[in-house]
């Protein structure tokens, strides 16, 4: 069984090995669904493709949340989000202003 990502480990995963700048985006990712979140992708809304899986082999269990840092140097707040779950379901959401929202919650 793969370990649950802790907030500290998640911060390391999402930091992309880059220093934090004012343009970097931080938000809370919450799994309020009934299945483990096993893949999580975030891409700028202007992009035509998804960025890599930010969970990198880990998972986020139902009822848990982690801090996400997008340190891509972009000054945008508008992103698309995709999540894949252990039960085979997927969820996508587009054009989200994550600066305004401060977090994103996956639900059933």
UniProtKB/TrEMBL annotation:
Signal sequence annotation: 1-22
Record has Signal as a keyword: yes
Domain of life: Bacteria
Keywords assigned: Signal
Descriptive protein name: Argininosuccinate lyase
Organism: Leisingera methylohalidivorans DSM 14336
